[in-house]
Amino acid sequence: LTVDDATAEAQTIITHRGAFRVKRLQFGISAAPGVFQNVIDKTVAGIQGVLPYFNDILIAASDEKELANRLETVLHRFPKAGLRLKSDKSFEVDATGIHPAKAKVQAIQDAPGLLPECTSKACRSTFDWP
Asked: Among 22, 54, 105, 121, which is most buried by a count of CB atoms within 10 Å?
């Protein structure tokens, strides 16, 4: 979220290389989550079946056509509000549960097994291999 000059000045930090003035709301600011949630709430307001929940947007519909229409509406509103979405972070939720994107699952399935040079306990624990 872009900030006005007064807010940018209040968020300015001093480093060994000089002052660094931000252009966007920093999430280390105590009010940032509430401000962000307010922007998200306003962005999706009035779209039936759309529920913002923290940094997630839940979209429900009775059929795929309705879901596609609601998703398209959401996808058009976010850029107009100056927000970007990452489609690679999305999940599908249906009657059987929450499912990651098929490409993510495939990437994990295609990952190589334990590498010969990674036989030490420290190396294996880095990748959570037994």
From this structure: 22
Spatial separation of the C-alpha atoms in residues 130 and 53, rounded to whole Å: 36
Count each helix (H run) and each strand (E run) in the chain, helices first.
5, 6
Task: Domain count for the chain, please give it.
Answer: 2
Same domain, yes or no: 74 and 12 = yes
In this structure, are residues 2 and 20 in contact, taking their beta carbons and an 8 Å threshold? Answer: no
The rounded distance, in Å, linking the Cα atoms of 67 and 76 is 14
The answer on 104 and 43 residing in a single domain is no
- Domain enclosing residue 119, as ranges: 97-130
